[in-house]
Design a protein that fits this description.
This protein is globular. 5% of the residues lie in helices and 55% in strands. It has 208 residues and is mostly beta strands. An eleven-stranded mixed β-sheet has the order 1-2-3-4-5-6-7-8-9-10-11. A hairpin with a 5-residue loop joins strand 10 (179-190) and strand 11.
């Protein structure tokens, strides 16, 4: 009923190889219908080698939500199968952050993550109230590994175009058109063939 806490558990299969488990807990649904303030919820999703947990609250009165997110994957193969597209060969990945969602913006605070050998932290804001999407924020990386984005070198022992995942890396020029104001500080760059440390990068872009 509307006055009882929400409990939902499911187990299923997406496509032929991706088995998932889903658990959702929440407050009484009447609190959403009556705009009575925040509605707490917990969501857990798991697949073979990947887990995501989200704990938060939805404010129906103001149309906002605040969520603490923790995610980890031994590799990105389950995500590749879910989206039907190859990703760079990062290896294991993990991330934690607090996400605040409003009608025209998504704010990510307390971001801490790892993609393979890359480690990063910071905060980002995605704005959708203008003519073009906008991203702003500050990131710092103890290490930033560019090798998953680069084509294989002769030292890798693979021929170009041999179908390896590195050949399918996402080119930076394919980034979507957004206005950006992001500052990045990197203690150590990996994969450049030279020792580069303590670098600062400013990403600025607009429609001009």
């Amino acid at each position: 009923g509307w006055d009882r806490p929400l409990r939902l558990a499911a187990r299923g299969r997406l496509q032929s190889h991706l088995v998932y488990e889903l658990a959702i807990e929440g407050g009484p649904m009447r609190r959403l219908q009556d705009d009575a303030g925040s509605w707490p919820f917990k969501v857990q999703v798991g697949t073979d080698g990947a887990r995501l947990r989200a704990d938060g609250a939805l404010d129906a009165r103001h149309g906002t939500a605040r969520v603490q997110v923790n995610a980890r994957a031994d590799d990105l193969a389950p995500i590749e199968r879910l989206i039907g597209s190859s990703l760079p060969d990062f290896g294991d990945a993990s991330a934690s952050c607090t996400v605040t969602v409003a009608a025209d913006a998504v704010q990510i605070d307390g971001l801490h993550g790892r993609l393979g050998k890359s480690e990063f932290a910071g905060h980002l804001t995605f704005g959708f109230g203008g003519a073009r999407p906008r991203i702003s924020g500050t990131l710092s990386a103890a290490a930033l590994d560019l090798r998953p984005f680069l084509p294989p070198s002769p030292a890798d022992g693979r021929a170009i175009g041999d179908g390896s995942r590195a050949d399918q890396a996402l080119p930076l020029r394919d980034l979507v058109a957004v206005d950006a104001e992001v500052d990045l500080k990197v203690e150590q760059w990996l994969g450049l063939g030279v020792d580069v440390r303590d670098a600062s990068v400013a990403w600025r872009s607009d429609e001009r």
